[in-house]
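Note to self: keep these together.
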Amino acid sequence: MENKLKAGSLQKALLLVWVAFQIWEVTFGSMDAVTFRAVHCLFLLFFAFTLTETKNRLLRILLISAAVLSAGIFGWFAYAYRSFALSGGYPGALHIAVAGAAIALVFAAGFLRSRSLAVLAAIFFAYNFFGAYLPGAFGHGGFTLRRVLAHLFWGSNGIFGVGVGVSSTYIFMFVLFGALLQRFGFSAFLNDFALALVGGTTGGTAKISVFSSALFGMINGSAVANVATDGCVTIPLMKKAGYSPEYAAAVEAAASTGGQFTPPVMGAVGFVMAEFLGVPYPQVMLAAAAPAFLYYLSLYFSVHFEAKRLGLRGLAKENLPEAKAVLQKNWWLLIPVAVLVAVMAFGYTPLYACTAAILALFAVCAVKHKESGLSLRSAAEALMAGAADSVSVGVCCILIGIIIGTVSLTGAGLTLGNLILGLAGEGKAVLCAVLVMLLCSILGMGVPGVAAYVIVSTISVPALMEAGASAMAAHMFCLIYACLANITPPVAVSCYVAAGIAKSNQWKTGLCAVKIAAAGFLFPFFFIYNDALLIGSAGIPVWKTVLALLTASCGVICLAAAFEGMLYRRCTVPERFALAVAAVCCMAAEPISDLAGILIFAGVFACQYFREAKNPRGNAER
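Structure:
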């Protein structure tokens, strides 16, 4: 179990009330969407202020006052919105004053919970006014304060729009589920299982990080939380094995980030994508399978080649648990995840499936109460901690409403999309994708994966589709790059957390993470113009998808070898260049390029094999 939540009795009671309210509403409730979102915001802002720790008495009083004011404003909104809408929806002076106070409180909570996103939202908010003075395409006619506040607070595209809609349903439930799993030992189980599987192989300690972070990251949905949880175990192990502090931190950051687009859960962001696309979630899950597999395959071989280059061995056999023993002891922790996947497979909604999985988790913990330590008190503490974990990402989603509201009011999304298309040219999907990638990296800086995806997809997906990409490919492209922003300098939040644990240089850690995850930055460009790497794409035969996946797998291995400078033995500079070319050819998913890539790879491998036979003592250990 984790450390107990630092909260007073009233806060703990209200956290339990919030959990009960959320679970009831997403399963049986009949409250209208806007009212439900308003109540959700009430709890989010209340806890954003009251759960902020401070020893300053004056600041504490201000935080409590802000929490009470937030509860009053959003509670009144929930009560008054129906009559406001039925009366024609024209805001009076009181409505505008309340809107101004609410948005000020949202920014205050944002600066406490996600300063970088709060700054970005403030820039968008200011654009409503100073955009009137900008020349060219980004200029607009200008809006009064009254119209901006009415649009952002009382309109459907503002803070009660899609961002809070996602937070109040998918994010809250799946963050709660992930936190409950962690509290009852799921993370420790994954670490032990990964240790048993790969701990004794070359670079085993780093491979443990890759496996465990992937498995837990796909459920908890937060790369930063995953680093903080798993990194405390895996990073010291990697340093002890011989990896540099920067490399150890980078591996953990890169592995934790990929969990957000790894099926079957995808950290809840997959469900958001399914809503945006209007398709069943299994279709999104299938499409994400190949990109996630390629990403983690590249990480696996990156750490493997680095270990070979450094001559690092795996852990001693006597220090490893047996996989069979680990499963026999903790198999019951897999039941809730199996229930989640099975319920969705039978056609039920993800929210219903998540509720069933939470109930299954408590049921199996009750049966295995000695192993799980479940009691009425521990169950309540786990639920409270899960709700508290959802506060920061929830506040981010409210801030997203300000960004999306500004985009819809000013037409900035259409303007930016047209600008990207103008720079790239009609039909030039790859060049358009490069510009979108840069935009994703900027807008996703310091923002949780699901929040970053909502922001960038709103602006970038239309431009990619106009350039010729399919809807699924455009959304998947934005999702992957929004998530990878967590390890992209200068604001590589996951790397900063990992660097703190490893006591390494933050910039070097960030750059090293980009190198390790290089394949993740490359292969999305290829499914932009060729859907063969997205399983289940319309009109793509199964054999073509399988062939594309096999050759792309060869490509990511080549890229890992090129960046690490190691294949069968240490690579020369020309060999590294040839492997990089082979990687691009193999990932292009075209028959001629695939054949060329495989031949180049085979040629480099053969050269190294025969050179090894002639000079076996001049090589690093394999």
